[in-house]
Write a structure and sequence with these properties.
This protein is of the alpha+beta class and 404 residues long. The protein has eight helices and 25 strands. Strand 17 and strand 18 (296-299) form a beta hairpin.
């Protein structure tokens, strides 16, 4: 879905001038998991601008703010009357939007009325980069916060240790113990690595979850991914009647990547419209759950499979651009700003707000991820991007003002 079209629909909605067809189109977008985040981001950006205009021009009372809020978010009070499509649509949205809208409307009013700013503008130098940070969830529901002075864990025979090989985290029992499902998760601003029971290595980018067993069986090795990870898979020979080489499968976003021994990167964030599989070495088969010919591809090194709603497109790429994060770099090579900014938001733990028309420039640069946000933003500003950083309600926010 084109961002310009989404911005138009949001403006029509907020101005109360949307046609029934436009309301229906917006509702369909909100029901689409690949598009609803874009709609929400556009909504917040336009609402912020609308609220500031109201605060400047109308000097609203509490009643006015409440009326605006109820008009946009809350279901009408007159249940006997036909419910407007807008109210029906926002029932699903209310838990997510209500807190934001209240904070913004009240904050703006306080700022204009009593000179207490709704946000504090800060310098990007105050925002540090991400670091080693992750949690390990066990089958019994227990969660362990992993040591941030370590960079990864090893799932060994009957135990999980840190990569230094000395510090045991938890025991898993011997080969007779039941296989458990374990989950390694990184937050925004976190990264961690894991050596799986078969010796395969996985590096998790920020805001990523990897689900894996405490040990693999002899027929296949299966892990589940949400987010982004780099895989270095070892070949494992089967035993008895098992396959000669036990397949390794990565399941993510209705997609399966099957390999024997190879290195590749998978980016499968829930808030992005496509899943990217980039092959560095070896050979992989990428398939989707729809079972049609357009939903499968075999990749050679230097190729990338882009899975968009069950249809796979293959293109030649420079793998370094998609794996640079593992080596501590942002690699922006003619990227749309929304993609580059999404990467920054995950690594520096930022909330992003777009004001006005989303920029249409391309972003270039090779930037050290271990530097404060300020260094990265200076590079983006050279590409023509205009942004500012604020702190509000306990969160750091990157406000994208458009092009310079």
């Amino acid at each position: 879905m084109d961002n310009g079209r989404i911005a138009f629909l949001i403006e029509q909605y907020l101005n109360d001038s949307a046609t029934p067809q436009e309301l229906s189109e917006l509702e369909n977008l909100l029901a689409d998991p690949n598009a609803d985040r874009m709609v929400k981001d556009a909504f917040y950006a336009h609402y912020y601008r609308l609220s500031e205009s109201v605060a400047n021009d109308l000097h609203p009372t509490n009643e006015t703010k409440e009326r605006i809020f109820r008009q946009i978010v809350m279901q009408p009070q007159h249940q006997a009357a036909p419910v407007r499509p807008r109210a029906v649509r926002l029932r699903r949205w209310l838990p997510y939007a209500a807190a934001v809208l209240l904070a913004m409307s009240v904050g703006l009013f306080i700022w204009k009325g009593s000179q207490h700013a709704p946000y504090q503008e800060i310098t990007a130098a105050q925002i540090p980069p991400g670091t080693n940070h992750a949690t390990l969830s066990l089958a019994d529901g227990k969660t362990i916060t992993l040591d941030d002075t370590q960079d990864g864990i090893i799932v060994g025979a009957g135990t999980i240790t840190y990569t230094d090989g000395h510090s045991q985290i938890i025991g898993l029992g011997d080969d007779r113990a039941p296989t458990e499902t374990l989950v390694l998760s990184t937050p925004k601003g976190g990264t961690y690595s894991i050596v799986l029971p078969d010796g395969s290595e996985v590096w998790l980018n920020a805001a990523t979850t990897l689900k894996y067993p405490s040990r693999f069986d002899d027929n296949e090795r299966v892990v589940y991914l949400e987010g982004e990870a780099y895989f270095a898979v070892t070949e494992v020979s089967g035993k008895g009647g098992a396959p000669a080489n036990v397949p390794f499968k990565v399941v993510s976003n209705s997609q399966v990547v099957e390999v024997l021994g190879t290195e590749f990167n998978v980016s499968a964030y829930a808030d992005e419209s496509e899943t990217q599989t980039t092959l560095v070495a070896g050979r992989v088969n990428v398939s989707t759950s729809n079972g049609n010919a357009a939903g499968t591809a075999i990749l050679e090194p230097g190729e990338q499979a882009m899975n968009r709603q069950g249809v796979i497109h293959v293109q030649k790429v420079d793998p370094a651009q998609y794996t640079a994060w593992k080596d501590g770099f942002f690699y922006f090579n003619k990227l749309p700003p929304q993609i580059a900014i999404a990467q920054l938001a995950r690594w520096y733990d930022l909330e992003v707000i777009y004001q006005g028309t989303p920029p249409q420039i391309s972003i270039f640069g090779m930037i050290d991820r271990n530097k404060p946000l300020e260094s990265v933003l200076k590079s983006l500003e050279k590409s023509g991007l205009n942004v500012k950083v604020v702190h509000s309600a306990g969160a750091n926010r990157l406000i994208v003002l458009g092009e310079q």
